[in-house]
Amino acid sequence: MNDSSSDSESRSGDEPLPVAASSAEDVATGFQSSGDGAELPPISQLPHPKSGQRPISYRLEARDPHSQARAGVLSTLRGPVEMPAFMPVGTAATVKGLTPDALESTGSRIVLGNTYHLALRPGEDVVRELGGLHRFMGWNGPMLTDSGGFQMFSLARLVKVNERGAKFRSHIDGRLLELSPERAVEIQEALGADIAMVFDHVIGLPAPRADVEEACWRSVRWAERCQHAAKRSDQTLFAIVQGGLEPELRVECAKALASLDFAGYAVGGLSVGETADEMHRILECTTPHLPEESPRYLMGVGRPEDLLNGIARGIDMFDCVMPTRNGRNAMAFTDQGPVKLRNAKFQRDPSPLQAGMPWPSGSVSRAYLRHLFASGEMLGPILVSWHNIAYYHRLMREARTAILAGAFREFYEDRMRGWGVPSAWPPAA
């Protein structure tokens, strides 16, 4: 049953949504605010879920007149998430280097947990016994868990995959394990995140057409099995569109999953070696066939330019390890492009990473950050990871403000120029 709802359900397909005025002041202060101008409550003050409430609903607020970009709000039992939104990745029940309070200070509203890693260590039973994933990691805001499919195929040594599921060896201790759609749902229900992902068949690219087609339709069948296996009324399932780089397969997969009436839809199997143009082409043919009243999630894609290109093609949600992984390796994202802090030219640079942003981004000097990395101090990776996540959230807020103001293309082109990245604005529909 699809729990999503939208004002657009009562409108005709051609009737424009109202465009709300929005102030750039929201972006400058670093605060997130709701569509009516009210500041969102702190994560620590969000109410705990009540039984009987719908798990999620999505409200579409505005469409960009020149692209598929849109602004909306995802309402969850643990509070609202303004969209477009970026989800920091908490692989092992932690976003590397950041406490929950620090994570909240970056503007984070929703966090991703990794089912594969948590099932192997400490085990979903341990997490459940200790009160679920939110309590286990001290994060009271919304959470999403992936199904473990991507990590299983990318990290583990596969033994066998068939219609039943997949057998594989753990990348940690070599144990022989089995994961099926039903088992993936069981693990995610034990973890207790607000949003769970269906188990999908992920394959590497390039691959023969026959293999891509088999994985695509198996993913649809597995998605339906996940629906039948789901028992928790306080958790929502998102489907995952597969189909490799075959546009017609992507379209048919999207239509098939939409007919199953999920609450949200992800586009998976991208950012696995294809070119940016290939990814854009797949998004352009896929998102128009996903329900407008449901959130759309592009999995594992995370360069700043990829986020804006995804938004322009109708994507609402993103996740990626890039902000923290690059942060641990002395790379900071800024409006002028990446800053590689180990470079000697920053040894005496007093400027902050990004003027106008809250601490540490707008206060700590590049010279000091370079010193921390040169000295092997753990504070360096922490501060740059902190900055990168805050920068990604600021980018999402700015994109949202621009969409609400009907000025997304101007914002898009300005950011691409600043980053020195060629524009990849989608072709007119």
CATH-wise, what's the superfamily of the domain at 59-319? Answer: Queuine tRNA-ribosyltransferase-like
Using the coordinates shown, work out and report the CATH topology of the domain at 59-319: TIM Barrel
Q: What about the largest sheet?
A: 8 strands, parallel, barrel
What separation lies between the terminal Cα atoms? Answer: 31 Å
User: What percentage of residues falls in helices of 4 or more residues?
Assistant: 25-40%
Rough outline = globular
Stretches where pLDDT is under 50 for at least 5 consecutive residues are: 1-37
Q: Report mean pLDDT, rounded to a whole number.
A: 90
For the secondary structure, the number of strands is 16
- CATH uppermost class of the domain at 59-319: Alpha Beta
Strand content: 15-25%
The largest sheet has its strands arranged as: 4-5-6-10-11-12-13-14
Estimated structural class: alpha/beta
What this model shows, in words?
The protein is of the alpha/beta class. It has helices at residues 25-29, 100-105, 115-120, 124-129, 133-137, 149-155, 181-191, 209-229, 247-259, 276-286, 304-312, 322-328, 366-374, 379-404, 408-419, and strands at 56-63, 70-76, 79-83, 85-90, 111-113, 143-145, 157-161, 166-169, 176-179, 195-197, 236-241, 264-267, 296-298, 317-320, 331-332, 339-340. The protein has a domain at 59-319: TIM Barrel, CATH 3.20.20. Helix content is 36%, strand content 16%. The strands form 4 sheets. The protein has an 8-stranded parallel barrel, surrounded by 5 helices. Helix 9 (247-259) packs parallel to helix 10 (276-286) and helix 12 runs antiparallel to helix 14. The chain is globular. The protein starts with 24 loop residues before the first helix and ends in a 10-residue tail after the last helix.
